[in-house]
Every structure is written in structure tokens, then in C-alpha cells.
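Me: I'm a chemist; would you kindly supply a protein sequence with its C-alpha cells?

Assistant:
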Amino acid sequence: IESRAFGFLFISIAIAVLTGTIINEFLSTHGVPIYYQLLSWILVFALILGITFTKMKNLFQSIRIRMKNSIKWPLHAKIINGLSWAGPFLAIPIFHPFSQYLILLGIGTGNISTFLLIKYYSNYKNKEQFIVGIIAIIMIPVLFLVDVLLTSVLVHQHVLALSRIFVAISYGVGGIYALNERRKDCNKHNKKRTEYTLYCCLYQKLQEI
């Protein structure tokens, strides 16, 4: 259930990031002030995630379970996880020309850190989170190549938008993986249940003989 819930959550994040990027590019192209662009991001995430939480009743419970487990982590683990998520984003105002790379770095290190800590302290492999993180990290050199090769064509705003699209791809792939794994688990469970039913029927027939 938890894997399915986070699968839908990650896909919702991907849709929100992609939608927000498209709207933000449209507003930016038409010279709309930055505070309206920020407002559009908030509204997009509130709408899409609001719909997701409304439809997925067990999503709150799944998030609560993971947060409850993370509270039990040692202080140094919490600090490492917090810095992995917040560090790259806090560096954006200082290294603003590299913001497109720092966004991907924050998503990558944050998700990978959370995956490793949950695996170590909770003995649970939330592979979808690792996939999100590793794809985001892999996208950094890809974005760099695009930035270098098309530097005469793309402006900083376009490269920044591309980094957000890569974030959406990372979460989308992670979400699809989680849902696919959930489907496989359900198929295995149904297969075992069918085999057990057949075994019981066969045993009953043999008893009758």
C-alpha cells in the first residue's frame, strides 16, 4: 500500500512541476512580475497535490509512518538528511548562476540520503526514492552539456526550465516504478492465493476418494 501511495505522490509531484514550469515560462515570456509567477507555483502544487491527497486516503497514513520512523533517527542522521535536502537549495542565492544544477543536486542528494537512512534504520528499501535521486544526479551532466552546446541559443531562464523538467522526469519515473512494483506484488499474492485454493480443492477431492 505504501509503495502505491508514494507512486501516486511522485507522479503528482512530476505533473505539478511540469505544469508549473509551463505556466511559469508563459508568464515569464509575457513579462508577468515574479511574485505572480511564485503564486502560480503555489496554486499549481496546492491544486494537484490537494486532488491527490483527496483521492488517496491512505497517503496521509503512509507519510505519517515514514515521518514517525524518521523521528527515531539519531541526531546526526537527521542533520545529514536535512543538509542533503536543504543544502543545495540554500546555496542558490549565493551561487545563483548555477541554480539549475543546484536544484537537481538537492533533489538527488535529498532522495538518495533519505533512501539510505530509511534502509539503514528502518530496514525498508523504498527504491522509488533512490530512482528519483539517481536520475536527478545523472541529469546534471546532461544539463551541463546542453547548457554548453546550446549556450548561444538558450538563456539562463530556458536552462532553468529544463532542469525543472528533468526533476519532473525523475519523479515521474520513480512513481511509475513504484506502481509497477506494487502491481508485481499483487500478481504474486494472487498467484499464491490461487495455488493455495487449487491445493485445498485437490486435497478435498483426495479425501473424498
Q: What stands out?
A: Helices lie at 2-29, 34-55, 59-71, 75-90, 99-122, 127-149, 156-208. The radius of gyration is 22 Å. Residues 197 and 203 are 10 Å apart (CA to CA). The mean pLDDT is 86.
